[in-house]
Design a protein that fits this description.
This protein has 262 residues and is of the alpha+beta class. It folds into two domains: 6-126, Uncharacterised protein PF11572, DUF3234 (Trna Endonuclease, Chain: A, domain 1), CATH 3.40.1350; 136-237, Macrophage Migration Inhibitory Factor (2-Layer Sandwich), CATH 3.30.429. The chain has helices at 6-15, 21-33, 68-75, 86-93, 115-126, 147-158, 193-205, 224-232, and strands at 35-39, 48-49, 53-56, 59-65, 81-85, 98-102, 111-113, 136-140, 166-174, 179-186, 215-219, 234-237, 260-261. Strands 1, 3, 4, 5, 6 and 7 form a six-stranded mixed sheet that branches. β9 and β10 (179-186) form a beta hairpin. It is elongated, with a radius of gyration of 20 Å. The mean pLDDT is 87.
Length: 262
């Protein structure tokens, strides 16, 4: 039996009787964060790829799989493919009326995701966090946040492995009397901060939580504030990946150079 994947589990939760809107949001968040294998008509030519396009009654679709072996099983032959994140793929297809045929015929998560849903996903991913500056007066343990947000943060921070040492979620009171919650990252380099803030924003967005329920801050581990964060906050450890000996050459793996559809 094939091991259940993250997308299988998210799809099953979404399809359960009585599943709420949150389950659908979590599925699309997992889709955006997953590495997907896109079936091609031929091997990639540099940064150019040529996906197989399938026309059915419900529209036009490309075929993607969340495991290489699932793609091979569907194709029944050696087949060219490109490995892309769901968010990169959504950006490539947006506005073209092309949907995703996910894991068709090979997994319990098989489904057709229409082009309109791909456009919606890209709109969700395009939301940017607001930048807020405030002077902290007091920290206290987080309280009143729904469990689905904590679960979403835990899952989302895995996707930004290595961009910070750790994160703490704390309750915060600002000078002037404002109160809220703060997700504080430790030892995040300047160049990683936009990505970390975006990850936190997406965790809120795909949890169905009102934007503005959580601010984001950055601190050095040597800062006296770090000890206060550890005393009052809920800690999230970010995985620290092994350094790559050579950069990956697979099309779509470099976010600065997404592949070009032919």
């Amino acid at each position: 039996m094939t091991e259940q994947t993250v997308l299988d589990a998210a799809h099953a939760a979404m399809e359960q009787e009585g599943a709420d809107e949150g389950a659908r949001l979590r599925f699309f968040e997992r889709l955006a964060d997953s590495e997907l294998f896109l079936l091609l008509t031929q091997e990639a030519q540099g940064d150019e790829i040529s996906p197989e396009l399938f026309d059915v009654a419900d529209g036009r679709f490309v075929l993607v799989f969340d495991r290489e072996e699932r793609l091979a099983r569907f194709a029944g032959r050696p087949a060219p493919y490109a490995a892309l994140s769901g968010r990169v793929l959504a950006g490539m297809l947006a506005g073209q009326g092309v949907g995703l045929g996910l894991n068709l015929d090979v997994a319990p998560s098989a489904q057709l995701i229409p082009g309109e849903a791909v456009d919606w996903l890209l709109d969700m991913l395009a939301q940017q966090p607001d930048q807020v500056e405030g002077h902290i007066a007091e920290l206290h343990p987080p309280a009143g946040l729904p469990e689905r947000l904590l679960t979403a943060l835990d899952a989302k921070l895995v996707t930004v492995a290595g961009l910070a040492q750790a994160a703490y979620l704390v309750g915060v009171t600002y000078q002037g009397g404002g109160r809220g919650h703060l997700l504080a990252f430790l030892d995040a380099p300047e160049g990683a901060r936009d990505a970390l803030a975006k990850a936190a924003s997406e965790a809120l967005t795909f949890s169905g939580i009102e934007a503005g329920s959580m601010d984001v801050g950055f601190f050095a581990a040597s800062d006296p504030m770090a000890a206060k964060l550890a005393r009052h906050g809920l800690r999230f450890d970010l995985p620290q990946p092994e350094p790559l000996a050579t950069p990956p050459a697979t099309p779509g793996m470099d976010p600065e150079k997404p592949p070009v559809l032919k």
